[in-house]
Design brief:
It is built from two helices and seven strands. The protein is mostly beta strands and about 110 residues long.
Length: about 110
């Protein structure tokens, strides 16, 4: 399994990568939670229609630098971010614990 880190992350975070169109469409739908995070790539927007829990969403540019972090409750549609190339999703509150905030670079390690 892949992991990711930032300068603030105390230890590598488990990461699922949704690289196919089908995996990106499914995202976190149908789950009750996630251990770690899900990376949607390529992606510039997300929705939480049909989701069972609130999520943190980090929009990343092509160099994996965080453009913005938002918390989305179930049943919401996020606006596309034109400069975003990837989206990192996790349970609400996780991004703050991991130090994922605007301007931080996310480093992904294949596992």
């Amino acid at each position: 399994m892949a992991t990711f880190t930032t300068e603030q992350t105390p230890e590598p975070v488990p990461l699922e990568v949704a690289g196919s169109a089908r995996a990106r469409r499914r995202g976190l739908l149908g789950r009750d939670g996630i251990e770690g995070a899900l990376l949607l790539s390529p992606a510039s927007s997300v929705h939480t229609l049909g989701m069972r829990f609130a999520i943190d969403v980090a929009y990343l540019d092509r160099k994996s630098r965080v453009l913005a972090v938002r918390t989305m409750r179930p049943g919401r549609v996020g606006l596309p971010r034109p400069l975003a190339r990837h989206v990192l999703e996790a349970e609400a509150g996780a991004m703050a614990r991991w130090g994922v905030r605007r301007g931080v670079r996310v480093a992904v390690q294949d596992g």
